[in-house]
Amino acid sequence: MVKSERYTCNICNKLYSSASSIWNHRTKYHSSPNIDQGKHIVNINDVLGKQLVNIDNDFSLSQIEKDEQYKCRKCNKIYKYKQSRWFHEKKCNEIEIKNINHEIIKNNNNNSQIIENQNNGIVNNTINNGTINNITINNYGHEDLSYIKDDIIKIVLERLTHHDDASMKNAIPRLARMIHFNPKHKENNNVEINSVRSKTAKQMVDGKMRHVIKEQLITDIHSKIIDFLQNYINKHRLDITRKMTECLKHYKLKNPEYIKKIILEEINLLGYVFYKNNMDIDIE
To answer: Start and end of every C2H2-type domain (predicted)?
Structure first.
């Protein structure tokens, strides 16, 4: 009887009749760069598999299992399943973005400190620890709102009872402009937005302008104004219309994407326009 050779895959034990067949199998199904494609087991004419010859088979089970694990491409954390790695990498990517944003802010603050140190001798009488032209700038979150009268607040609440874009843009964004971007009340000019597209802005912290993530800052301005209006509604419920008392309830149900695209972007634009029209002049 003519002896025939059979080739057994040393990973999955599948039998093949030729070396080229097992080569194609290994290339297609076990193509890890760490595995030598020439390593296989030869079974010489023995159906029971008693005469097995292992040709240079130095791959242990632990090594094979290690090759089949999935490593995060960002932090090198190892997962057994590809899907588990995919879910992890989504969060890992968000963490990486946050780290990049914080690194940008850190670098911007360092650059601002260098510029501030270089200019101390020139503008010491103009800008010093939160004081601009002898006006003390309030820290962000500690604004003086005493000049915002009832009639202004009622106009804002009335506009919130409508649902068109024009009314929305002239409600909460208008209050943001009156508080932070008001040339008549420089004590509250504690926010700087010097670019529409930049990911960072500045806010007054402990008497100094510090870089922060702009999206978070604008979102916080928006939230603080909602709280301000809600407190007013709670105190003056009997002095305003029923629609006004319920306007915030309906406003909070709006799609977050609408809030971001229409309201927050309007605040962003108002801040930028104010900076270009006023802050540049003050700096000059």
So the answer is: 7-35
Q: What angle do CA 129, 130, 132 make, to 5 degrees?
A: 110
Nearest-angstrom CA–CA distance, 232 and 238: 11
**pTM metric for this prediction:** 0.57
| Long-range contacts formed by 197-205: CB under 8 A, 24+ apart | 199/101, 199/104, 200/101, 200/104, 200/105, 200/108, 201/271, 203/140, 204/130, 204/137, 204/138, 204/139, 204/140, 205/139, 205/140
Q: How many residues does the chain have?
A: 284
Using one digit for the tens of pLDDT, what is the confidence trace for 170-222?
A: 999 999 999 999 999 999 999 999 999 999 999 999 999 999 999 999 999 99
Cα 178-232-224 angle, rounded to 5 deg:
55
Stated as kind and residue range, the H or E segment containing 152 is helix 150-160
From the CB of residue 275, how many other CB atoms can be counted at a distance below 10 Å?
Answer: 21
